[in-house]
Specification:
This protein has 10 helices and no strands. It is mainly alpha-helical. The chain has a domain of about 210 residues. Helix 3 packs across helix 6. It is globular and about 65 Å long. The protein starts with a helix and ends with a helix.
């Protein structure tokens, strides 16, 4: 595949395989954002916080606010785990010229749902560990001598940009490719990790370049949508400054809509990029393009009959 294919093919897959590539990430994102907005509204309206006008202020948050917060976190977790997983088989089948339904994609995803969750948790734990190591000098400096806090902060910021951010990028890339392998090859987390290392061997920096450029591209597009929501919220604040409920509603709705669009686009596009890296690696290492050609020929023969 050429560099341009990686930029354009995910967009083509959105049109060709609308169910798993477009529909599933959008529905998952809408659900998680809707739950998050309800939880936020409960949080803002909870009398214990006194953010919105209320009567007596209780000493603790209500049970409903806590439960909604837990459900919101669970829905965000589920969306992060599943959205990209739905995209992988949709894009892979689209490359073969086959359309896949959401139900068909779910059948592939659910058989290794446990491995996908483990992959997500391991990647998250690694990122958290890297973040802790980056900020450790600052924490140690503040614990020992507050005057040394500036030096500790300087070292931590240097570690953040030199070590942590590249580590986050690598972890995210490995996670995306391994996710496609888990879904498409029905393997465990460990097998997917080993397979990822094998497939990108010799194409590591090429894969890094592709993921970096595509991530920057979709981040710019998502940022534009988020900026529209921010300007909309500011507009409401300027013209309705005395209505706290109107300001909060506008903020939640505008941010909710723009967050849905930007997040769903990221899931769809980057999920497609990781699937294409997986397919391209198999073509180069295992002659997967010959398998695709034979599959296309079989479909043509079946069509003639």
């Amino acid at each position: 595949m050429s560099f341009g294919d990686f930029l354009s093919a995910p967009l083509k897959a959105m049109r060709f395989a609308r169910g798993p590539v477009l529909g599933a990430p959008v529905l998952l994102t809408v659900f998680s954002v809707a739950v998050m907005l309800v939880a936020m509204w409960s949080y803002f309206g909870d009398p214990a916080l006194a953010i919105l006008p209320a009567g007596d202020v209780p000493a603790s948050l209500s049970g409903l606010t806590i439960v909604l917060g837990i459900i919101a976190l669970a829905s965000i977790f589920a969306t992060d785990v599943l959205a990209g997983a739905f995209v992988a088989p949709g894009v892979s089948r689209a490359v073969m010229g086959e359309k896949l339904s959401v139900g068909g994609a779910w059948a592939l995803v659910k058989r290794r749902l446990g491995s996908l969750i483990v992959l997500y948790l391991v990647a998250g734990a690694l990122m958290l560990g890297v973040m802790v190591l980056a900020f450790l000098p600052m924490l140690l400096a503040l614990a020992g001598d507050p005057a040394a806090g500036v030096a500790g902060l300087t070292i931590s910021m240097a570690l953040l940009f030199i070590v942590a951010l590249p580590a986050f990028f690598m972890i995210t890339m490995f996670q995306g490719i391994a996710r496609a392998i888990i879904v498409m090859e029905n393997v465990s987390f460990r097998a997917a990790f080993r397979r990822t290392r094998l497939l990108i061997k010799g194409r590591f920096w090429w894969s890094v370049l592709i993921v970096f450029v595509c991530a920057v591209l979709i981040s710019v597009i998502a940022g534009i949508f988020q900026s529209v929501g921010q300007f909309g919220a500011i507009f409401v604040v300027l013209f309705m400054p005395e209505s706290e409920i109107a300001v909060i509603l506008a903020f939640v709705v505008l941010y909710g809509l723009t967050y849905i669009v930007s997040l769903a686009l990221t899931y769809m596009y980057m999920g497609g990029v990781y699937a294409l890296i997986y397919i391209d690696a198999r073509m180069r290492h295992e002659g997967f393009d010959m398998d695709l050609a034979r599959a296309a020929e079989a479909r043509m023969m079946a069509g003639h009959h």
